[in-house]
Amino acid sequence: MDILKKSLLVGFVFLISMLASPNIFAQDKTDGENQKVEATTGATVSKTDGQAGVTVMIGGDTVKSNCYTYTKVIEGNDMSEEEIAELLNGITIQIGNLGDGENAVKVNVDSNTAECNNANVEPQETDDSAWGKIVKFCKTSGIAGLGENWKAIIMLLISCLLIYLAIAKQYEPLLLLPIAFGMLLSNLPGAEMYHSELWSNFLDENSPAYHSYGTILKEGGMLDIIYMGVKLGLYPCLIFIGIGAMTDFGPLIANPKSLLLGAAAQFGIFITFLCAVAIGFAPNEAGSIGIIGGADGPTAIFLTSKLAPDLLGPIAIAAYSYMALIPVIQPPIMKALTTKKERQITMKQLRDVSKKEKIVFPIVITMIAVLIVPSAASLIGCLMFGNLLKECGVTERLSKTVQNELMNIVTVFLGISVGATAVAGSFLTLKTIEIVIIGVVAFSFSTAGGVLMAKFMNLFLKEKINPLIGSAGVSAVPMAARVSQTVGQKENPSNFLLMHAMGPNVAGVLGSAIAAGLLLSFLG
Predict the structure, then answer these.
(1) Are 179 and 416 in contact (CB under 8 A)?
(2) How many CA atoms lie within 13 A of 94 on its CB side?
(3) Which of 121, 210, 430, 475 minimizes the number of CB atoms within 10 Å of its CB?
């Protein structure tokens, strides 16, 4: 109670100090129609696109940029930041009835004039009273912004739902929780932590800010700066180092045939790619959507940030949501494609793998995979490097660091920055719904691909493979392997498939990374 009383007292003193300040929230006085306001005292002008648009702000009210076109810009001379700064000294903004519209606005730049009628900006009398300052404060608050943007309210509700699923239902909480909170921050009106328009200009070849990280650092918010690690492909690769350090490739080395199951489980990626193209997605967007079928969040983020960054939010959320739902999605498909007799197949215990084999494996796989698919070098190289740190036995401290501290820090940065990209304008679209639906197709075909490959292999093998382990070929480690074990034990309580399923499971990690490299090389 004492802390509460002190907090209320501090808040009261702060409010009184604001109200007592003669300059706070002050705005330029207007005497009526046709009042000119100097840019340096009451108005600011900033560029919003690479050709004609500008934003004019008067006392906190924003006039739509499409209303204003400077003659200089129309003639083809893109305005640089320096040119805007020079123009500020020569701009006057005239408010009021100019003859063509009740709320018309005229912008004068030197001798060039552009007018916009019905701009919904009205001169307001300055109210220096305490009540006027409170009203001004309320108008500029985020709450007022919510009233003007119903989509932001929906996004906040979605973020709260994802937070609930991450905490209460434990759906991939380590990444879904940061993603959901990043979404929450970027959709709070007035927070200005993430600016989608900066990244639109970053990708616009006609913009002066094209591929300009300097502009992001200068004008961006906290989440814009953190998001640079996603755009540079840094975070997914660092996470792959941690994944490699936590992965035991022993089951795959002991049973190399399981590599085929991991490869077959990537079938859903390419089927989904074709489906996405068929319903109207561009090839680069379809490639990013297809990678959801790999059930590998970092790989999906890595590829989408390269091919279709505007879809990063929906694809990341779909990928991690479906990864959490693997125990729900996979069992019906596994049972539909197998007989009871096949599900009861027992498999012999795997042989022991020597330390030398485990050391040589990441080195050989890196060379072979990168020579075949060079564009997969970042993911495969980082994955195998992390595994080598674990298996070599002389870098235990580094291995523990990448498994814990590095992995945890990067996970926070990756999740919160990816979630920030899910702003209302890009998320609440038909494309998002289509991505969510196609994501189910991707997971289903990937699961089916692994199971059917195991059944096909059994036609030629003396020692039969339990087809249930084929479903573990998706790279959700170790969740998919546990699902295979659970379904198998329900059919035969004495059957232990976990270690056998780990072979195709870790093979799926390699397979999804190579598939991402192939898509990047063809579509990037």
Answers:
(1) yes
(2) 17
(3) 430
DSSP 107-141: EEETTEEEEESS----------SHHHHHHHHHHTS
- Least confident range of 66-80, 199-213, 235-249: 66-80
Tokens of residue 207, six digits: 């913009």
pLDDT tens per residue across span 226-242: 999 999 989 999 999 99
Q: How far does Cα 496 stand from its chain's mean position?
A: 37
Burial of 329 (0-12, 13-18, 19+ CB in 10 A): buried
Return the SS3 of 150.
helix
In whole angstroms, how far apart are CA 319 and each of 14, 62, 436? 45, 37, 9
Nearest to 137 by CA among 93, 195, 190, 188: 190
Q: What is the CA radius of gyration of the chain?
A: 29
Query: Cα–chain-centroid distance for residue 468?
Result: 32
3-state SS string for 396-436: HHHHHHHHHHHHHHHHHHHHHHHHHCCCHHHHCCHHHHHHH
Tokens of 284: 């680069």
- Give me 232's structure tokens: 């540079």
Among 470, 485, 499, 513, smallest CA distance to 262 is for: 470
Question: Residue 311: which of 455, 199, 463 has the closest Cα?
Answer: 199
pTM of the model as a whole: 0.73
The 8-class DSSP code of residue 171 comes to S
Hey, which residues does 62 pair with through a beta bridge? 57
